[in-house]
């Protein structure tokens, strides 16, 4: 995997929040609380693998009536 391919896989907080259908503020709070998807920091900027956001969303799935 090249650096360019790796960088394309990472997205910023705004795009990650959009995928999760949450506001940036709610998404950021989840990161602070340790309840959000895995991320890395590049300088002060949190970056998320698109697949990590999807995996995290799937982990929240509950059966109906639960």
From TrEMBL:
Name by which UniProt lists this protein: Helix-turn-helix domain-containing protein
């Amino acid at each position: 995997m090249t650096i360019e391919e790796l960088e394309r896989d990472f997205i910023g907080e705004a795009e990650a929040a959009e995928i999760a259908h949450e506001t940036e503020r709610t998404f950021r709070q989840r990161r602070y609380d340790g309840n959000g998807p895995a991320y890395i920091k590049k300088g002060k900027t949190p970056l998320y693998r698109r697949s990590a956001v999807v995996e995290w969303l799937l982990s929240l799935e509950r059966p109906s009536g639960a």
